[in-house]
Amino acid sequence: MTPRALPVVLLACIGFVAALAFPFLYVTPNRLLSGEPHSPHVVALALTCVLLAAAGVTSVRGSRVAVALLAWALIAGLPLLASIDARTLLLAAAPSARVPLGAGFWLMWLSASLLLLDRLRAIRMAGRVVAWIALLVAIVVMGSAGAFDTLALVREFHAQRGPFMDALLTHLTLAATTLVLALVIGAPLGWWAWRTRRTDGAVVGMLAFLQTVPSLALFALLIGPFAWLARAWPALGALGFGGTGAAPAVFALVLYALLPVVRYTIAGLGAVPADAREAARGLGMTRLQLLSRVQLPLGWPVLLAGLRIVAVQTIGLAAVATLIGAGGLGRFVFLGIGQGANDMVMLGTLAIIALALAVDLLFQAMLAFTERRP
Amino acid sequence: MIEFEHVSKRFGEHVVIDDLSLRVDDGEFFVLVGPSGSGKSTLLRTVNRLVPIDAGSVRIDGVDVATQAVEPLRRGIGYAIQSVGLFPHRTVGENIATVPRLLGWSDGDTRARVAELLVLLKLDEPGIADRYPDTLSGGQQQRVGVARALAARPRIVLMDEPFGALDPVTRESLQASLKAIQRDTATTILFVTHDMDEAFGLGHRVALMLDGKVAQVGTPLELIRHPVNERVREFVGGSRARLRELAVRQVRDSMRKGEVADGDAIDGGASLQDALGAMLTQGRDRLPVFDDGQLAGAILLADLVASRE
């Protein structure tokens, strides 16, 4: 067996074991209490069996598309199966009863997703985008047709629809603001460090040190100084600047984002051949022309690859920002933990993961587009 | 006209150019030759101010380059380097058009000039202007590099070992192209090389640089026949200098007019080295010379051997 085939079989096995060993669904009397487990859906079990068998065969034959298609079908089909199961379970239960998804479902679903992710890596960018968008469309269409309404997670979503959409928007705004600020500050900083050959200097060292500060601690540490700033300059306070809220959150997120932006700016500038730079100078380009006509076009792909990492990292980190009142999808996670409402935690977590994956895909598409020659 | 007057340059403690004075005339093909570290590249780069000098002055047509704005100065001087330094994200045409674009030429003028240069430098594969540099051979890339240096019709062109990384056949072909272009346009070329044969083959005048100083400056024949000291003699090639002399001199200057000989004729514009080669190939000690479209005379082995005046 080739090393490349290993993840396929491993993930399929995890899915299969999960299907056998963990409950697929629970039935709970209401949204907070725990309930009794229910075993896997027969069809889900059968599908995982087929996937495992297919993985075994195709890992030898090397066909990625077959496994990818199976995984795709599993990701779209598992929630539907769970929902059908839930419908029959709810018929016999009280009106306040809920049917949350169990560990068996999540593990199967996760391994199918990872499998799809892994198999799609070998496929062209356009194909990847189409596969994920098709998946999204399939799930959204089924969801808005009410196909998943019997599941506790979807009920939770319907109950929180307004706050959820707000949080999603806030989360995106936080991440986008962070990214733009990190680029505006980090790119010139990287350029300066590269030009003065201070790539291992104090500034980069400081930023590297900041990366080691736990995010929770950094957020907490910023409350004091920001509150003081807002008191010292009431004008700032009037703009929503304060110890808590978006300002310190974005500040902390930018601090974390700076190091990768600076590093990748330096790497991007380093990717420009020295002889091309020498020729550009010798032919009479100004520093600005050198930057815009030679360094930026040649270094941009490297910087973009860095921004992709920063974007995904920021979306994850922004979950913690809710703790200092900045809002965002992390709100559901922490509120859910506090209330013991697992579906609420799940709602926030899934949304953050989906957002991170979508942004990652977006950057990959941009990267593929940039690297293609006009 | 380029004048170096008492130019000095040091990098740290190391003196690279030591109180050097030199004059390059208009329309001259001037070669700086010397071993690595002799300061020839540094001297070249003082002209377009890529290297600032510590003392003395570099003047173009009487105007000190240090008093001129640096970018306009550089745009007015062609520049080609050994590593070529083409912009990998620009097509061949866009690379050649770099300086005309910087100077704000119209699109039509730029396009016409690029087309003209492609022909001039024998870059005549169809569609080559729209290809990217990494699809070209090393020789083609350097032809593009030279075309880029010549694009805005500069009166002065600086070339830093432009053919150093090429194979001998490609190099000779490019040398011939450059020589013809220089002759036709009367561009002043300041050319750096460490290859003595290249220096003598291209230069109207050659300056041999040793340790940041000009050891001797003169025509190739002057350096070969009258080296000022032992070190120059050594660099010019000792006993092999006579072979170099054959390469520098033309058949028409040594032939006996009106005499006849058997065998395949040799062109009057060929070098004496070519003539010697032809004699060895044909197994003869005299060959007919063909010049200006007719048989003009004969060249004799004895004249090659005794060609020292």
Give a description of the structure.
Chain A has 374 residues and is mostly helical. Chain A folds into two domains: 3-156, no CATH class; 161-371, Orthogonal Bundle (MetI-like fold), CATH 1.10.3720. Chain A has helices at 6-21, 42-61, 64-91, 103-120, 125-144, 152-159, 161-195, 202-212, 215-232, 234-238, 246-270, 274-282, 287-317, 330-339, 342-371; strands at residues 25-27, 36-38. The relative contact order of chain A is 0.09. The model of chain A has no long low-confidence stretch (mean pLDDT 83). Chain B has 309 residues and is of the alpha/beta class. Chain B has two domains: 2-238, P-loop containing nucleotide triphosphate hydrolases (Rossmann fold, 3-Layer(aba) Sandwich), CATH 3.40.50; 249-305, CBS domain Like (Alpha-Beta Complex), CATH 3.90.1280.20. Helix content of chain B is 37%, strand content 26%. Chain B has 13 helices and 14 strands. Chain B has a six-stranded mixed β-sheet with strand order 6-7-8-3-9-10, sandwiched between helices. In chain B, helix 12 links the parallel strand 12 and strand 13 (286-291). In chain B, helix 11 (241-248) crosses helix 12 (272-282). Chain B is globular. Chain A binds chain B through residues 273, 275-286, 289, 293-294, 297-298, 373, and chain B through 48, 50, 70-76, 79, 81, 83-89, 98-99, 102, 132, 145, 148, 158.
